[in-house]
Amino acid sequence: MDALSKTYKMYLILQLLVIISAFNSLEHGPITVYAKPYTSAVASVNKHTDGAKPLYSVQMLTTYINTMEYLPGNFLIDIDAPIIWHDCIVQENMYHGSCPPNTLCTSPVSCEESECSEVRTFYSYKNPSCAPEIDGYSSSRGGSCTCGVNVLNPVTGSCDQPLLNYDEFTLQTSDGRNVFSNGNYGTFPKAACAPSSSVASFPSNVSGVMAFSSSLYAFPASSYPPLKRTFALCFPSKTSAPGVLFLGAGPYYLLPQSNVDVRSYLSYTPLLTRPDSFDTHPDSFGYFIRVDSILIKKRSINVPANATTKLSTMDPYTTLRTDIYNSVVRRFSMVTKRLRPAKAVAPFGLCFSTSTNGLRVPDIDFNLPDGKKWTVSTANSIKQITSEVACLAFVDGGATSEPAIVIGTFQFEDNFLVFDLVNSTFGFSSSLLRKKTSCSNFNFTLTYNA
Length: 450
Hints:
The protein has four helices and 34 strands. With 450 residues, the chain is mainly beta. Strand 28 (382-384) and strand 29 form a beta hairpin. The chain is globular and about 70 Å long. Residues 1-35 have low confidence and may be disordered.
């Protein structure tokens, strides 16, 4: 655009007011000069089990117009979603006091702006169930036309049409070891505002979807120097202690090994985005890797060369196409013959009788290109259903399921995962428990960076 729109000018003025307010409330005097630069931005990750399936959210700061202060919000982590959307309203000509109480207000993107047509063309959810995208009007006086875009609700699978907006999300800065109390990392992505009813199916206190895909409208694309377009996920295995998300290429540290960079634990494999052979969801901006075979106690199970493997933060367990699943279950049954079988508990097909949580089974290895290996140990392969029943946490996806393999969140827990979008690589640690640490061992204690 040759000139900034009126809406965007108002948005910039709003950000200036927020910055001025923040400076006025600093406890440590004027602007601080960092003694050492930050290397990442950091946020806590929480596990939710109050819905039909486990979900994971990241906590970020959002700006409330009337109070001019940062307040936390929780957003589902979706590495497939092309755009951020959450519970808020769009409002033009904002001023102090114009936003309704306890409501997050943002500036709308006009239907006449280039971003509107770009998002609708390339990043909007394409599905016959979606209503045609329409232009609306902001509720404030003199409101201009707004830009409705279609998004997928990852919980219900339904189509929603929030309004594109200028947004702001803020994280705290870190050196990978400590969180700085006097440094924030503000990002200003285009997102979308949905009514509260759109997030009614979400876990308690979760108000939106934070997109971490390869899309230009996802959160990683809003990063800027000194941080690179790289993020790390470390999902907790319990609801009682948070995991951690890093924006930036590292270093990363977890207690009690406070001097060991977690990157030293990682192996890397190429990230494959939108494979040409994968046309079931051609608008996907998610992440794919190549799995050559699956190894269980020295016996290799072949994965067809044309099979696609997808990483998912919305699927709770790894799903395998029937031909691959049957081979895995057959082999796993053979190497666990000493265990007493139990009646299968849906959605699982192979379960064991156990009176304790101490069940130990052979590792399952995903063999990747160049001899790399992602090891799934007992903590990530066996799901304890009751005190007496545990199941192999892999699911039959059906004879024609595509992708052939979807690696789900149970296999992510207490694994450190790095998505390097600059170099298109995926880093993985395998279970951190074998390193005597976990995803809940990041030190969130605030440190003043003087």
